[in-house]
Amino acid sequence: MTSQDDLLPVGLEDALPARARTITSAMRAVLDAMDAHGYDRVRPPLVEFEHSLAGRMDGVATRRMVRFTDPDSLRTLALRSDMTVQVGRIAATGMASAPRPLRLCYAGDVALLRADQLDPARQRLQLGAELIGADSVAAASEVVSVAIDALRAAGVTNISIDFTLPDLVDTLAETSLPLDADKRAAVRRELDTKDAGGLREAGGEAYLPLLYATGLFDDAIDKLSALDAGGALASRIEGLRAIATTIGDRARVTLDPTERHGFEYQSWFGFTLYGEGARGALGRGGTYTIKGSNESATGFSLYMDPLLDALGGPEADTRDRLFLPLGHDRDVAARLRAVGWRTVAAVSDGDDAAALGCSHRLDGAEPRPL
Amino acid sequence: MTSQDDLLPVGLEDALPARARTITSAMRAVLDAMDAHGYDRVRPPLVEFEHSLAGRMDGVATRRMVRFTDPDSLRTLALRSDMTVQVGRIAATGMASAPRPLRLCYAGDVALLRADQLDPARQRLQLGAELIGADSVAAASEVVSVAIDALRAAGVTNISIDFTLPDLVDTLAETSLPLDADKRAAVRRELDTKDAGGLREAGGEAYLPLLYATGLFDDAIDKLSALDAGGALASRIEGLRAIATTIGDRARVTLDPTERHGFEYQSWFGFTLYGEGARGALGRGGTYTIKGSNESATGFSLYMDPLLDALGGPEADTRDRLFLPLGHDRDVAARLRAVGWRTVAAVSDGDDAAALGCSHRLDGAEPRPL
Lengths: 370, 370
Description:
2 copies of one chain form a homodimer. By secondary structure, chain A is an alpha+beta fold. Helices cover 32% and strands 22% of the residues of chain A. The radius of gyration of chain A is 25 Å and the shape is elongated. The interface between A and B is large, with 98 and 98 residues.
């Protein structure tokens, strides 16, 4: 009976009830946590001018966006592949006159024309918060805190957070570890892949010790500090220590100062979030500058698929279900729903309470266990 | 300072905080009301094979869908323009073996390449519920009830519901008011536009009295019944009366038996929902047959934009906001958030509680009004 029309394109899928219910509950928990920290939700559209989406931030790959021609303007439109750029646009336009710092959050689907090899999904549910107008240690501490609270609210356990310094190479290359501009890209790349041999070949031998200033935060930050003879990193190191202090026992903190993957547009501070049960990162964040408006900002994004992994996958719905037989009293049923009962009404003689997953049956005005 | 990149394409817009907040709260209320009636939410993807979306139901205009080529399958993909067809597909595939009747609900964005002249929006937030496996009077009564409960939960007042008989002409043409097959389309069209002159010209003079069986339900259904000398509509009229009885005083019921606009795929029963404050319909529903699987079903869809009109537009956020000065006790702040306070933390000396919209300021462990 299955025809081609029953199939979905690769990388796109339905969330059936158990999964959809877990998504909704995790999303509400994350949004409510961000709201409690004063972040106001905005809802940008699914589609924008391609040029606008692509122009607002580095690191957005336009080639992988779904693009099409607008029959009205004859310009190219694109399906959003990242909501952060949309929030940056809102901050610079519709909310340009709102007081700073401006706290905005979002949750919505983003899409790609073609997925990457590691993650076949072409649609992802992205959730995040942006603190616009600040990229200080205080801003970073708050954003890290909001991210951890959001994950905890959703039910993630054993959270770890991995700090990085996205502009580390640029900073050192200008100061204590001079490096020609044309070598920096190669050195960054080899540091990112942790390839000691490649790093030597790329002329970055002096950067080798950075590969070992990684691991549990307290130990790794001491190593990084010891390497920073010239003090070029002093303010960054002090900043990282301050942020780590505010986390307390809510998450395990690690440091990987040369990690750059996923931090194409961040400035001095970046972080990756992990949780028990999820193979990959739950999300990323950091400080950055909004392209176009040049406002400084700090924010993070989470993705629902790894978040669901961290929650142990979809949870079955174990709530009571009250079967309402044909001819039941509608007012009684409405009153029971108002106090929290979930009802399933018979629409024919053949409807079977047990088959429909009901735990109770309405008997007069009384719900009775099946 | 405004550049072209600051603009959004025609028919697409941001929901800024007040509007986004009202949308979120209305959406949660609608989904919770559907959930209380036993409807399980599903989340189909934004994009499917065009052929699959277009093939599953009549009345879906593929020409207005955003379409593009899938680089993987080389088939044409489309952005969904209606989620009902996706729920029909889910019922026929992923949930084919779930017991019937199957209750599913959904909420999500749908998009059009080009809007229609009456409504410039190219993206709409659609919400709805589908009862799959039944299109009886009992099924229709339940679905109407869920729709009204959902609107009331969202805060809509003075709800009215307009009943129609989508297959009225086909039914009469086969029985008491014979009409050649080639004239039916024209007669349907003239009845739909309530054009008495056009109806005569189209050869539908016998159908003229139907134009007057409209208005408040009790009166109009009597008129329709009086017209139905042959009894061809008897079961339909009895059905409508039964459905109307279950509504009670929750909504004003009207009848417009020849209304066909928006009911291209419904069978014997259709309804349109209205509420105070909204110019147009809040949503529509009715009985239908799922194309492909041929299952009978009853459902309805609401749209967020008219729903917001009916709610009087976006509501300002009047909740308390607690300003947390620099150096505040983070544990105290966390405890206050846990009991419902919404906090806004200073990230620099310059942050001003009043300018940031705060109503209170944390003083030691105590929130004090500003």
